[in-house]
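Troubleshooting: if your tokenizer reports a length mismatch, compare your output against this known-good record of 342 residues.
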Amino acid sequence: MPLFITGLLCFTLFLYHIHKEPRRLLCGILLLVSLYLIIRGGLTLYAPNTMIGADILIIGEGDEIMLWIEILLLFISFFGGIALCVNGVRLIRKEGSSLAHILPIGFGLMGIALPLLIIFPLRLGLMAPSAFPVLLWLFPIFLNIVLYVPWMLSVFLIYSFVYALLPKSKNCDFILVLGCGLKNGETVSPLLAGRLDRAIKQYKLGGKKASFVVSGGQGHDEKVSEAFAMKTYLLQKGIPENHIILEDKSVNTLENMSFSKKLMQELNPNYNCIVVTSNYHVLRAVILARSVNLNAQGVGGHTAFYYLPAAFIREYIAIIFKYKALALAYIVAMIVFELLNV
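Known-good structure output:
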């Protein structure tokens, strides 16, 4: 019962925070924690464990079902890891070799290794507990630290999809389009075209009243700024020039937000805007928008399916670094918890 009630409280907090400010990773954490506690608590209520005497515990069907769910998750980790490795090889063949393109292979190998990292030490400790007392103490700490990576990845992926489903306002003053690399250094890439096409769709949904803010500077290997290339694309699509504002100084997403915010505030202090980027980048983009007090919602453009795993993993790594204090606090909490239970 306590687990189930705690889960309901967490879900209530999730609903409160997503209504008040959905641009927070906390919403995703509350959602995943609440779902776990509700499922775990619900199964325990459905078929509780039974204590017979002082030292005999009969495991109920609820815990048995939970065990099978956990085993299923290990299978998903293993075969998902294989799928990521295959995707990584395909990505390298299509896009060439780079650190970003190797990421699916690295995470795939971790997914394959995770069940082995859990099962082998556990089996060793259960077979000879007296011979490996230190292992039995270190294993829970090791397991919880290892599980932080897939747990936070699940938080990021699930809440990215949840945020994408949230209703967004059709009417806005500005549509901020975030730049990315150019094709041949002067024309928009398919990825950037996907963002611009989504922005045009948003423009039409709002009655063609909003102004575009195209944001992106000129890289060392680019002949023109990303903002200029985006403006050219929009003009070719029939967007009036007086509806396009250039921000061509930024070199990263945070600067996209900061510099564009200044331009919009100068034109309309009471502005509201929609940030348009690729679908895998939306959640981190709106988190960064919130960090600079940019009044914006986020929507995503189409991304080729084969490119999504590497893109999501790259965004996840950026989120981990942004919230590294959370990771450190989690690790310390796990160690302290195990020490108190020695």
